[in-house]
Amino acid sequence: MTHPPVPFDPELAAALAALGDQVPTAITPDMIAAARQATDPAMAPPTDEELSLGGTYTVAERVVPGPADAPDISLLICTPAGADSACPAIYYTHGGGMILGDNRNGMAGMVEIAARYGAVVVSVEYRLAPETRHPGPIEDVYAGLVWTAKNAAELGIDPDRILIAGGSAGGGLTAALGLLARDRGGPAVLGQLLMCPMLDDRNDSVSAEQMAGRGVWDRTANATGWGALLGDAAGGPDVSPYAAPARATDLSGLPPAFIDVGSAETFRDEDVAYATAIWQAGGRAELHVWPGGYHGFEAFAPAAAVSQDAKAARLRWLDRLFA
Fold first, then answer.
1. Which residues does the UniProt record annotate as the domain Alpha/beta hydrolase fold-3 (predicted)?
2. What would the pLDDT profile of 115-164 be if each residue is shown by its tens digit?
3. Contact 101/198 with Cβ under 8 angstroms?
4. Which of 61, 95, 149, 281 is deepest in the core (most CB within 10 A)?
5. Could you tell me which residues come within 8 angstroms of residue 111 by beta carbon, excluding any fewer than 6 positions away?
6. Strand, coil or helix: what is 120?
């Protein structure tokens, strides 16, 4: 059965049309190198000055130990200036389909959110695929969280109030981080903020099929990302849940989750299924499916009504979590 595509929200559709070919729908392996060199000023990573929010935050890079027998990793740390007591923290993992980006991507929005709660933000630099395949990226992310928790006092962080957060591939890695921290008895995590997370390497859902060739990060791009991370194992029977959290068979004992996704994007069905599986395991999850939203719509159309609704819902959940 063929499924017709979900229409985009009119405001979001107009924003996407204005971008033209600056944001390709599909990415193939031969496009990875060029995508990493893209220099569109509108998508440039934020500077230290921008992240300081006019002096409200101090910005520093720290190089800390990586996983055993692996290179050190870099953490971008934004700290409220003049804080006189331990702060909550957001441990952030950037997106980019496992193949693109660095620890500044998405940080402007993350620091803006953190400022509402006087929170520290720690953004981890992880090795990208295909140069580094699973488990390299998730082990980098885990090592950064362990270091952050162990050094919470030095960083001015309350170790009992560390939220993990990420978008797209970073959302998938964040979900995997929650599983790994649970299974290894790792740092306690207050909650997990999973924004349009990339969770399932099988890439065979109805939403993946019906949105192929449309919007941002379609089924072809998704196959490129998973293939880079997993090689020939992608879609096969032996994929670890720490690579693709949708493969997990036990979602009990996880921190409270917030999951959001657009109705018109590849990840819709796998994200809804993940929230459902958390509920079925007796866990806590808040799920939002934004009508007519394509992947990453907030970044491309921040003033659209549906983008404002998505941001507000996220803040309401964080208000309750950090209360």
1. 91-298
2. 999 999 999 999 999 999 999 999 999 999 999 999 999 999 999 999 99
3. no
4. 95
5. 51, 53, 57, 78, 121
6. strand
Domain ranges of the chain: 10-322
pTM, full prediction: 0.97
Strands across the sheet containing 285-290: 57-64, 73-80, 120-124, 87-93, 157-167, 191-195, 257-262, 285-290
- 103 is written with which tokens? 């620890």
Average pLDDT over residues 300-317: 97
The CA-atom distances, in angstroms, between 48 and each of 115, 167, 193, 221, 323 are 15, 21, 24, 31, 29
Spatial neighbors of 34 by CB under 8 A, at least 6 apart, are none
Q: Which sign, positive or negative, has the C-alpha torsion 291, 14, 4, 209?
A: negative
Decide if 121 contacts 90 (C-beta within 8 A).
yes
CATH of domain 10-322: 3.40.50.1820
Q: How far is CA 161 from the centre of its chain?
A: 19
Q: Name 58's bridge partners.
A: 79
Q: What is the CA radius of gyration of the chain?
A: 18
